[in-house]
Amino acid sequence: MPELPEVEALAHHLREHAVGKTVFRVDVSSLSVLKTATPPWTELHGREVTGAGRFGKHLDLVAGDLHLVVHLARAGWLRWSDALSPTPLKPGKGPISLRVHLDAAAGPGFDLTEAGTKKGLAVWIVRDPEKEVASIARLGPDALSLDRTELEKLFAGRTERLKTALTDQSLIAGIGNAYSDEIMHMAKLSPYATTGKLSEGALDGLSEAIREVLTSAVTRSVGQSAARLKGEKRSGLRVHARTGLPCPVCGDTIREISFADKSFQYCPTCQTGGKPLADRRMSRLLK
Known about the structure:
Elements: H1 4-17, E1 23-28, E2 51-55, E3 58-63, E4 66-71, E5 76-81, E6 96-102, E7 109-114, E8 122-126, H2 129-132, H3 134-137, H4 148-155, H5 162-166, H6 177-187, H7 200-221, H8 229-235, E9 255-258, E10 263-266, H9 268-271, H10 280-286
């Protein structure tokens, strides 16, 4: 799933390549991705693209007083082209859910695509994203805006595990499965640590790790073409998706905890005092 750094890089790409151009046409091949009915997507036609940004992991393309808001979910992506095919999309055919033509039918623009059978890509066309898009209205503070004091206030009295808290968008916006693993590894904290019981030193390290991991990832990602962003993300990961490989810090073997539809990785030596974590879900299955 694209997280804060990749979405920021996509927004930057749109600011560099789409702003100032006019929406010539929007093709929708999968109506299920549209989560709003009014205004219709045709209201974007003829409008100048005036900006691009993000809300957490939501991408926001601004065209005057309208916003095309996108959540790419787990398997969605934005694919830019300097010269799109002018042929209208066929409904329900292929991975492309929505296409935005800029300046002309065969001009530049982008496709919103989604791989696999489990669909989660979502698009809203609204005037006020912070009020009209429920998942944006629920967002906590942006991860890159948090300072040490704010982080302590957010975690005070909470009882969930650190991994859960870092990926809860209503608590902190922008961090997903991959970067939460990287942040906890840099901070030398267990994914199972209780958020409300973190020491002063642990909070210091966590705050620094959030800023360092995300800032570094944004720096690596911004300026890359959309097609190269996924590879850039993978190349910068030290523990996530590296099960069985040596930790780049201490050399211990990276371990994994598996869930029904995802997994996370950690280093026992760096994060849990050398002890592998119990995978309680797997333990129950083995009883």
